[in-house]
C-alpha cells in the first residue's frame, strides 16, 4: 500500500470514528432528507438549513459503513457556508470523482479527496454518494436551487 493510500485510509477512518456535524437540526430550523441504500443497508438523515441561497448548517445522523458515514461527515463539513451553487458544484465534482474522472485541480476537495479510491470499487460508490444525493435532494426541496 502506498503512503498516499495509507493517508487516505486514515482520513476516512478519522471521519468515521469522529464524525463532524453528527446530529439533527430541529425541523423549525431547516429541512430533513432521509435516504437509504437498500443494497447494503446504509441510511442517512440529513438536516439542512438553506437561507438566502447559502447552506448555513448541515448535520447528519445515520448508520452504515465507514465509507458512507465518512462521506457524510466530509460533505457536511465541506458545504457549510457555501452558496447553493457552490454546494451543487461540489456535489457534481464528487460525482465525477466517483466515476473515476479527473477533477480540475483548481477545486480544493480537502478531505473529500480521500474517497477517490472508492471509484475502483463500483459496489461501494452508492455508499459514498448517499449523503451527496441527500444534499442535492435537500437543496431542491428548499426551493433555492
From TrEMBL:
Cite the CDD domains for this sequence. Answer: IscU_like
Q: Which GO terms describe its molecular function?
A: iron ion binding; iron-sulfur cluster binding
InterPro entries xrefs: NIF_FeS_clus_asmbl_NifU_N
- What is an example of a Pfam family matching this protein? NifU_N
GO terms classed as biological process: iron-sulfur cluster assembly
Query: Which residues does the UniProt record annotate as the domain NIF system FeS cluster assembly NifU N-terminal?
Result: 8-127
Specify the superkingdom.
Bacteria
Q: In which family does this protein belong, per the annotation? A: Belongs to the NifU family.
Name the record gives this protein: Fe-S assembly protein NifU
**Provenance organism:** Brevibacillus panacihumi W25
Amino acid at each position: 500500500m502506498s503512503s498516499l493510500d495509507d493517508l487516505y485510509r486514515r482520513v476516512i477512518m478519522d471521519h468515521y470514528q469522529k464524525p463532524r456535524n453528527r446530529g439533527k437540526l430541529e425541523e423549525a430550523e431547516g429541512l430533513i432528507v432521509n435516504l437509504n441504500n437498500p443494497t447494503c443497508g446504509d441510511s442517512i438523515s440529513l438536516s439542512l438549513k438553506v437561507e438566502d441561497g447559502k447552506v448555513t448548517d448541515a448535520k447528519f445522523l445515520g448508520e452504515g459503513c465507514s465509507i458512507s458515514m465518512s462521506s457524510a461527515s466530509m460533505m457536511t463539513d465541506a458545504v457549510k457556508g457555501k452558496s447553493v451553487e457552490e454546494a451543487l458544484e461540489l456535489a457534481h465534482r464528487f460525482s465525477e470523482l466517483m466515476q473515476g474522472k479527473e477533477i480540475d485541480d483548481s477545486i480544493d476537495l480537502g478531505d473529500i479527496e480521500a474517497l477517490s479510491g472508492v471509484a475502483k470499487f463500483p459496489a461501494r460508490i452508492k455508499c459514498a454518494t448517499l449523503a451527496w444525493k441527500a444534499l442535492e435532494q435537500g437543496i431542491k426541496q428548499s426551493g433555492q436551487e
